[in-house]
Amino acid sequence: MPELPEVETVANHLGRLVTGRTIESAELIRERLAPNLTPQQFAESLSSATITSVGRRGKHILFDLDNGKTLIVHLRMSGRFQLLNGTGEDPKFTHAVFSLTGGERLLFVDQRHFGMMNIVETARLHETKEIAKLAPEPFSDDFTEAYFLSVLKSTKRPLKDCLLDQTKVCGVGNIYASEAMFIARAKPTIPASRLSKVKARVLHTAIRDVMNETIELGRAIPVNPANIGGNIYGSESDAEWRVYGREGHPCPNCTRPITRITQNCRSTFYCPTCQR
Q: Could you give the 3-state DSSP secondary structure of residue 13?
């Protein structure tokens, strides 16, 4: 599932491609993509609206429109956008079509069928259920060391589970949780409240650092209209991870094998020697 840095890249690339463009018409093909709206409501809310900006909150992409509405998109497991020319056949698994001025079509394609959309009043965006429950942005002034320490001390859940809770730490998923815990030498299964202040402070900084590494990578990737933001994982990207996806490979610190465990049906990668 895309995490904050990947969603940031997709939003940035979308912003470059569609900001200022008008949606001539919109079609909701898979109705469950936007469960709060009928296809007619979806079309009426978006038709003739101009996209004024594309941003992000947590893992949600936000299309602000000049009609006072915001389109909220969550990519989930496999959702992606494509901007295509002409009137050719839409790709398989196209779930929504936005026809733009100039004859181009912005498509939402989702093979796994988990993506979600909603349209809300922009003025009340932060009151909507998708946004209201989110923790502070990790790069915001609200994500302070004191805030992070209080979050960890408030729960006995395993550290990894705490980091994945979007109401506590926004935008972090499997990749960046594993990477940040490795940098902080923090054991994934330790109760969050038992993590030492020293390691918690290092973890706070590491969360920002590991995500910023990928955000910077995304800024250097050329925009590909046929696969917007989809090249953020290049063919050599696995070599960049310290522990994620590297089960059995030598730890970059101690050379002992990296271990993979399952927590809440998700893989966690760590070094049992360094992360005691």
A: helix
Cα dihedral 186, 164, 169, 253, rounded to 10, equals 30
Confidence at residue 231, expressed as pLDDT on a 0 to 100 scale = 63
| Model pLDDT, residue 232 | 63
Residue with tokens 């093979």: 111
| Distance between CA atoms of residues 172 and 178, nearest Å | 10
Q: Is 3 a catalytic residue?
A: yes
Q: Tell me which of 104, 153, 266, 272 is the catalytic residue.
A: 266
pLDDT per position as a tens digit, 202-239: 999 999 999 999 999 888 889 999 999 876 654 344 44
Q: How does pLDDT run across 72-119, given as a tens digit for each residue?
A: 999 998 999 999 997 778 999 999 999 999 999 999 999 999 999 999
**DSSP three-state, residue 186:** coil
- Give the three-class secondary structure for 162: helix
The residue among 232, 145, 250 whose CA lies nearest residue 197 is 145
Active-site option among 3, 6, 8, 179: 3
Answer yes or no: pTM beyond 0.90: yes
Beta strands in the chain (DSSP E): 22-28, 49-57, 60-65, 69-74, 79-84, 94-100, 105-110, 116-121, 259-263, 266-270
Number of Cβ within 10 Å of residue 247's Cβ equals: 13
Burial class (CB in 10 A: 0-12, 13-18, 19+), 104: middle
- Is 30 annotated in the active site? no
Question: Which of 56, 59, 187, 242 does the annotation list as catalytic?
Answer: 59
